[in-house]
Specification:
By secondary structure, this protein is an alpha+beta fold. It is about 45% helix and about 20% strand. The chain contains six helices and six strands. The strands form two sheets. It has a four-stranded antiparallel beta sheet with strand order 3-4-6-5, with helices on one face. It has a two-stranded antiparallel sheet with strand order 1-2. Strand 5 and strand 6 form a beta hairpin. Helix 1 packs across helix 2 and helix 4 crosses helix 6.
């Protein structure tokens, strides 16, 4: 007997692989029939209307976030903080110490995060990891990517001040050194970090 709070929804769910630098337009889809609690359905409908998305598009985003990010944190001690709490923690850390932490973490953890997803340690994977995982899923910053005069520019915007810029600058630079054996040009402001990558590296 199906509970009265559940109903059947038919919609297309993407069969995901990880495609650095965006989704493969040729990716296949499949149709699944699932049962969800009615109250979930009501919330999802309201949220899709609020965002101006179709129900299917919202489900697609939710599943993408789970497949590409959230499932890799299950069983780990991941912490979510309000921005004000995070800012207060940052303000209590010495800049030299935060730079050292960033250099150490950036030299090892991104490699592990890419390997656990089955991705190669190359330029495309690294840029995808910065934009999609650190930016979109983890909320470290908003990443804009541009091509300028034979160079790729990653502009990372945030609202946490110079200490967070110091962390991002050293974390990302350490990633490039360890994974690509390349020293990118980095410009840092209070609320933004810009990374320049030469065409030969890309």
């Amino acid at each position: 007997m199906v509970p009265s709070v559940a109903q059947t929804l038919n919609h297309n769910l993407n069969v995901y692989k990880l495609y650095p630098r965006g989704s493969d337009p040729r990716r296949k889809t499949t149709t699944r029939t699932i049962r969800i609690a009615q109250r979930y359905d009501e919330v999802l409908k309201e949220e899709s209307e609020r965002r101006g998305l179709s129900f299917n598009a919202l489900m697609d985003r939710i599943l993408q976030r789970y497949v590409e990010a959230q499932r890799f944190f299950e069983g780990q001690m991941a912490v979510t903080l309000l921005d004000q709490t995070f800012q207060e923690i940052l303000d209590g850390i010495d800049e030299t110490h935060i730079r050292e932490l960033a250099l150490d973490a950036g030299s090892t953890r991104p490699q592990d995060r890419l390997r656990i997803r089955g991705l190669p340690l190359d330029h495309d994977s690294l840029v995808w990891f910065i934009k999609q995982v650190l930016g979109e899923y983890n909320g470290w910053f908003r990443c804009d990517i541009h091509q300028r005069k034979g160079r790729e520019m990653l502009h990372l915007r945030h609202k946490f001040g110079s200490m967070w810029s110091a962390f991002i600058e050293n974390y990302v630079a350490s990633m490039f050194r360890e994974i690509l054996d390349y020293e990118p040009k980095v410009e840092s402001l209070d609320n933004a970090v810009t990374i320049y990558i030469n065409e030969r590296t890309a």
